[in-house]
Amino acid sequence: MRELTRQDLSDIQYGAAILGAGGGGDLEEGFDLIDTALAAGKSFRLLSLDEVPDDALICTPYMLGAISSLSDEEERLYDGLERSDTNPILLAYEAFQKHLGKEFYATTACELGGSNTAAAFFPAAMNDHFILDADPAGRAVPEITHSTYYFAGLPASPIMAANEFGETFLLDHVIDDQRAETLVRALCQVSRHSIAAIDHALAMQVLRDVLIPGTISKALNMGYAWRMALDNGENVAKAVAAEGGGLVGFTGAVSAVEFSTVEGFTLGSIEISGTEEFTKQQFKIMVKNENLVGWMDGEVAVTIPDLICLLDTDSGQPVTNPHAFVGQNVAVVLLPSPVEFQTEKALSVFGPAYAGIEGEYRPVMAIE
User: Fold this and answer.
1) Is the pTM of this model over 0.90?
2) Separation CA 202–CA 207 (nearest Å)
3) Is the peptide bond before 363 cis (omega within 30 degrees of 0)?
4) What pairs with residue 131 in β-bridges?
């Protein structure tokens, strides 16, 4: 067991934001959750999978929704609805334990990202529970089906959800995870495009060989490498690429951005005009919450499940969607996906075809 310090948590946050490949939520939201728990005197206790008893009840809390702002017209739909004083993720956590009649032992993040990793840490800390050094994605992903849970055939339901208006929703006896994604996404769309959900409430013995081990430590190490490079005035993009076993695929200035909220997702694109060795070249990224596809001069260069990560080369900060802006100097870091996402089953649901790209998946080449 490792009790995480504030510095550990910060490194995890930045590492998770980088490994979120543009998605996984905003860092500011994640830090707000962490600092709220620390201010309440709570601890964040990280366990490896082999430290958890077989009969321990584990759950996966997360926030789901679009990551772009709502229009004034959309905001008016919620006029007159009173906000709850209880954080939705805590509301869902409490309601789920009451429904199950059993206390959770630990939580696992649904993905790595600036807010969703912290969203799993927060209820565990606030309830004096543990955090698993594992998750089912090893990066950020758009949908519930993009996880080792789905690859292994584990059902998401029952699912407990809650929104900022204090409303809770129990989804039980759901046909499959694709249907679960549809139902939770529908609830999200009538909850200001943001909803807290908790699923996969299962015993450790069921999850032990399904979760990707060590992913929180991976985020911690990535955040540390990022911070050291930043503090020492080194090339942050190269440091991140080296730590993640990937490469710097492009550098340039953002020339165009387009984002919109569609059916609970943030859809869009980022176009970058090359600088340095990439002068006169163009790189375009397709976004569905996360960065899914990268084109170099009109040719597909990289696709999911590999990670397309943007870093601001002036500040060194990871760029999360939809916050890229025209004129921003960026580096595109390409990192290999977890091997669990490179199986035939995984690629059938989160490979090039999901992003509308024909052809086989071509992995990012690792640094020798």
Assistant:
1) yes
2) 7
3) no
4) 46, 107
